[in-house]
C-alpha cells in the first residue's frame, strides 16, 4: 500500500516535471471520443531501476488522471509502448505491469514485515512483558535498549568479578558472596524481582514454595531456557531435551541408575577410591604428612568413576575427552555470558574454531561406543556428574577441616561400621553421621547454586501470572541459607539438623532442600553421587586425618558449579 502510494506520487511528480507530451492521439481507436486525452511519457527511478512509462492522460482544467496503456519490462530498463491497433499486446503488457507491481509490493511488504518484526522484538514485546509483570507489583530493572549492550548481564558479571577478587572470611555465610548481584536484587526488590538478558525478562524467584511448584509443574509450560547454541556444544542429551523426546530418553536412561545396577558398580567405585588413597599415601613425607589440593584430586576421582562405570575404561583412557570437556566448559561459559547474536557463532574466530574443533575431537576419539553415544554420554554424565560430585567432596573436606569434632565423629562411625576394610554398599547405607554431614555440606555449599526455567506459555502459578517468554531463576543457594526455613543458625554447620532425615531438617518440616532439583527432572545421578561421595569419604577417614593448609583462601565462585577459586590445599596426616 505504502509503495503504491509512493508510486502514484512519483507518477504525478514526474508527469508534471518531466513528462513529454506525445501526440499519439490519432493512433488511438477511442481518442476521437476523448478529445482531451494525451499520451505522456514519464520516467520513474527506483534505485538503478528505470521505468519509462507511456501513459494516456486525460486532461481537464485542474487535474490529470492517468491510465497505464502498456508496459514492457526489462531488468535495467522498462519501456512502455503503445500498440494502438493491437489490443492483445496491450492486455499482455498490462499483465506485465501487474507483475512488476506485485513484485514491488511483495518486496516492500517483506522489508516492512522485517522492520516491524525487529521493532516488535527489540522494543514492543519486552516493553509489554515488562508492563504485564509490573502490573502484578513485580519490581526490578527497566527494559531499555542498553540491555542489548550487556545491560543487567554485564553488571552481573562485573559485580561478581569485583566480589570474587577478594577472599571472604572463613565462615559459611556464602550466599551474598557467591551470587552478589542476585543478593543485591533481593535486598532491593524483594522475593520476586525482574532483570533482563538482552530483550528477555528474567524473574528471580526466592520463594521456595513457588520454586517447588515450578519445578514440579507437568504442564510443559516451563522448559529449560533456550541457550546460545555454543552452550549446546557442551551438553546435550536428556538434560537439554524437552517433551516427548525427553520423556523417552529419561525412561531409557533411568534403569542404569537403579539401586541394583549401582550395587553392581560398587567395585568400580571402590577401585577408583583405592587408587586415590594410594596416590595420597605415596605423597606422604617422612613426617607422616603431605599437602594436597584435594579439588584437583576429586576431579580426577569423579572423572575416573564415570569413566569406569559409564565408559567401561579407566580415567587415563578417557582423559583426553575430559580435558577437552574442561576446555570447552571455559569457552562455553564465556559464550553464555556474552551477548548472543544469531549467526555470530559461525564466524571463524579463534575461539569459535576451537569450540567446534573440540567437538570434532571428541567424535574422533576411538572407542567401543558409537560416536553418538560418546557425545551424548560424555556430555551428559561427565558434565552432570563429574564437577558436581567432585565439588561436593571438596567442600566436605574443607568443612570437616574447619569442624574437626565432626571429622572425629564421622571417623569413629566409619571405623565402627567398616573397620579398615573397603566399605561395601551395605556398610555405606549404615553410615548415618556421614550422611548427615554430606547433606549439611550440600545445604551450605550446593554444587548447583541455581536452577533455571523458561515459560513457553502464559502460566498462572502460585497466584502469579507469568507470560510466555520469561526466564526464571531459582537460586537454590538462597533457599538453603534462608533463616525463615532453617532457623537463625542457618549459616552454621550443624549436621544434626538432618538426624531425622531430610524431610524433618527444616523448621515446620517445610521442604526447601533442592541440591538435586525437584519434580520430574530431578537429578538422575543422585544415588550414584551419594555412593561415590560416601565411599570416598569413608576411605579417606579410615586412612587420614586432615586440616586446612595455611595457604587456603576462602574464596568461592560459580563456573557451572560452586568451586573454591584457588583450589583446596589440605594437609593430610596418615593415621
Ligand atoms: C553432587 C552431585 C550432583 C548434584 C548436586 C546434581 C544436581 C543436579 C540438579 C540440580 C539437577 C536438576 C537440574 C534441573 O532440573 O534443571 C540434575 C539433573 C541431572 N543430573 Fe545431577 N547432580 C549430581 C550428580 C549427578 C551424577 C553423578 C550424574 C550422572 C552420572 C547426574 C546426572 C544428571 C542428569 C542426567 C540430570 C538431568 C535429568 C533430566 O533433565 O531429566 N547428576 N542434577
UniProtKB/TrEMBL annotation:
Signal peptide region: none
Regions crossing the membrane: none
Chief localization: membrane
PROSITE patterns: CYTOCHROME_P450 (PS00086)
Mode of membrane association: Single-pass membrane protein
The organism's place on the tree of life at top rank: Eukaryota
Sequence positions that bind heme: 523
Listed GO MF terms: heme binding; iron ion binding; monooxygenase activity; oxidoreductase activity, acting on paired donors, with incorporation or reduction of molecular oxygen
Subcellular location: Membrane
Cofactor(s) demanded: heme
Pfam families for the chain: p450
Keyword annotations: Heme, Iron, Membrane, Metal-binding, Monooxygenase, Oxidoreductase, Transmembrane, Transmembrane helix
InterPro entries in the record: Cyt_P450, Cyt_P450_CS, Cyt_P450_E_grp-I, Cyt_P450_sf, Cytochrome_P450_Monooxygen
GO cellular component: membrane
Gene3D superfamilies attached to this UniProt entry: Cytochrome P450 (1.10.630.10)
Family: Belongs to the cytochrome P450 family.
Name the UniProt record assigns to this protein: Cytochrome P450
Source species: Acer negundo
